């Protein structure tokens, strides 16, 4: 059953049935809120019998006796609560959300006795709940046996904390983050017959109601701009390509914008260099970069970030067809540089190179960060635990790495250099679109680097983290929305005026 949490904050709550969730750390005697939710001290006996020690994310489920102000008490262990970081609080919230079933109202006591649990922790806990509650079941028409109906169930959640005012304020930003992540997850999870370039561009256009300026370039306009690399990828599909430009102007007018560019291959068959059948359905997620950029612009706008931010996404479908581009074709990019297409399955970089050039040329941003499910090779290198980070600027790389640690959307920096760059020199054109199997993620990054000039730039290869990612306390979805929280944190920590 899909659950929707209606979250509010209060200093105290009048308990009358429902579920109470209490947090307890290893040092405190009793859990938070014990005096109001558990006056009969059922907890002490239950903890003894179950040998509950309150270590991190452990839990104790208690059916409250007659006369209790609630029906059930759920105690979650926090470990040493004073040592918890932001991501730990997200995980606790996600862990709590997973246990909320068959109940209409829940009171959650987050102020662990003897520990300064700030407003930020309460807001992070709530964000974890929202991220965990997400499930993509748009296309499931049959309910499972344990579900009373297929409809979404709304659960009223009251988070009890001494820091109500501050927590509420921070939570409005948390909601903006959750909505951005969920938008990105939805876009990645949507089937490819439903979400083509035109349909995706309409989803981006919908951000106008938040205050984003959205422009959509059609094939004709891209042709006029000379985007031969992007258009070459699209020419095998009956669905026309789109380039979407999103602008959020939350900073001072004179502030140079920050720019995020996303690969949006709505489906990647590989083209004439067609992929094997096994697992090809996953290639509906080859627009994970564009989804993250769209989700990020949603978040920055919805929380009113004091920054000028640009999002540019290149939307195409890569299909084999009588009109598809061939290995051996030479295309001319918007930059004027020519590219020999060696493998039509190395299409993401062909889309991004024109989107990067366009963004740099038009907006002169203070930095460009592109996100792309670019190479299978990054999975070989890093699995799905880190995204690959390629960067021409140490300051930006350090800021990104720090944001990755803060959000647990982790990055690992990979090398760039002129010896790798040589690997994409072509016999017939300025460059070729693959450097072969060895160092496949690095030569893909070298290719992109040829289109960014002197602008500080980072490429995040999210092929391992955007989809099919590890399911954890805050994500149970195939499409993870990776990148939204990371880049929101990057902006918040370094680029708001
Ligand atoms: Mn491909
Ligand atoms: Zn691809």
TrEMBL record:
Q: Where does Mn(2+) 1 bind?
A: 268, 345, 347
Co-factor: note: Binds 2 manganese ions per subunit.
Give the catalysed reaction(s), semicolon-separated: Release of an N-terminal amino acid, Xaa-|-Yaa-, in which Xaa is preferably Leu, but may be other amino acids including Pro although not Arg or Lys, and Yaa may be Pro. Amino acid amides and methyl esters are also readily hydrolyzed, but rates on arylamides are exceedingly low; Release of an N-terminal amino acid, preferentially leucine, but not glutamic or aspartic acids
TM regions (residue ranges): none
Q: What keywords were assigned to this record?
A: Aminopeptidase, Cytoplasm, Hydrolase, Manganese, Metal-binding, Protease
* Subcellular location(s) per record: Cytoplasm
Indicate the principal place this protein occupies in or around the cell. cytoplasm
Annotated Mn(2+) 2 binding lies at 263, 268, 286, 347
| Name of this protein | Probable cytosol aminopeptidase
Question: What species is this protein from?
Answer: Rhizobium mayense
Taxonomy, top ranks, is: Bacteria, Pseudomonadati, Pseudomonadota, Alphaproteobacteria, Hyphomicrobiales
């Amino acid at each position: 059953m899909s659950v929707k949490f209606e979250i509010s904050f209060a200093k105290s709550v009048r308990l009358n049935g429902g579920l109470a969730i209490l947090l307890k750390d290893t040092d405190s005697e009793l859990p938070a809120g014990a005096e109001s939710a558990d006056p009969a001290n059922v907890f002490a006996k239950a903890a003894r019998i179950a040998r509950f020690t309150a270590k991190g994310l452990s839990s104790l489920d208690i059916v409250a006796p007659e006369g209790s102000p609630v029906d059930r008490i759920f105690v979650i262990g926090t470990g040493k609560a004073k040592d918890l970081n932001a991501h730990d609080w997200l995980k606790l919230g996600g862990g709590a959300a997973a246990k909320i079933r068959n109940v209409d109202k829940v009171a959650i006591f987050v102020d662990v006795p003897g520990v300064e649990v700030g407003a930020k922790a309460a807001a992070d806990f709530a964000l974890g709940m929202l991220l965990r509650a997400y499930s993509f079941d748009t296309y499931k028409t049959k309910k499972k046996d344990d579900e009373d109906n297929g409809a979404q169930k709304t659960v009223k959640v009251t988070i009890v904390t001494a820091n109500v005012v501050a927590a509420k304020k921070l939570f409005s930003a948390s909601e903006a983050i959750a909505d951005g992540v969920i938008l990105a997850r939805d876009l990645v999870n949507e089937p490819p017959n439903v979400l083509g370039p035109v349909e995706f561009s309409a989803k981006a256009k919908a951000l106008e109601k938040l205050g984003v300026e959205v422009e959509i370039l059609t094939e004709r306009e891209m042709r006029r701009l000379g985007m031969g690399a992007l258009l070459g990828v699209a020419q095998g599909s009956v669905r026309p390509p789109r380039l979407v430009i999103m602008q959020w102007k939350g900073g001072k007018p004179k502030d140079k914008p920050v720019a995020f560019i996303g690969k949006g291959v709505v489906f990647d068959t590989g083209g004439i260099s067609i992929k094997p059948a096994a697992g090809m359905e996953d290639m509906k997620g080859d627009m994970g970069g564009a989804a993250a950029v769209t989700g990020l612009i949603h978040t920055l706008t919805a929380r009113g970030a004091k920054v000028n931010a640009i999002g540019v996404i290149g939307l195409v479908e890569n299909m084999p067809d009588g009109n598809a581009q061939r290995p051996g074709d030479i295309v001319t990019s918007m930059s004027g540089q020519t590219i020999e297409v060696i493998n039509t399955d190395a299409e993401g970089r062909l889309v991004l190179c024109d989107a990067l050039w366009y963004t740099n040329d038009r907006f002169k941003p203070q930095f460009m960060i592109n996100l792309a499910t670019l190479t299978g090779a990054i999975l070989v290198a890093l699995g799905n635990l880190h995204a690959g980070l390629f960067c021409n600027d140490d300051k930006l790389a350090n800021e990104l790495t720090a944001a990755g640690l803060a959000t647990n959307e982790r990055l690992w920096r990979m090398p760039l250099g002129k010896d790798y760059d040589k690997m994409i020199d072509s016999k017939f054109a300025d460059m070729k679109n693959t450097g072969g199997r060895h160092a496949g993620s690095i030569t893909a990054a070298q290719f992109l680097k040829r289109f960014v000039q002197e602008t500080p730039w980072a490429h995040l290869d999210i092929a391992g983290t955007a989809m099919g990612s590890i399911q954890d306390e805050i994500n149970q979805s195939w499409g993870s929305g990776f990148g939204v929280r990371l880049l929101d944190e990057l902006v918040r920590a370094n680029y708001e005026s």
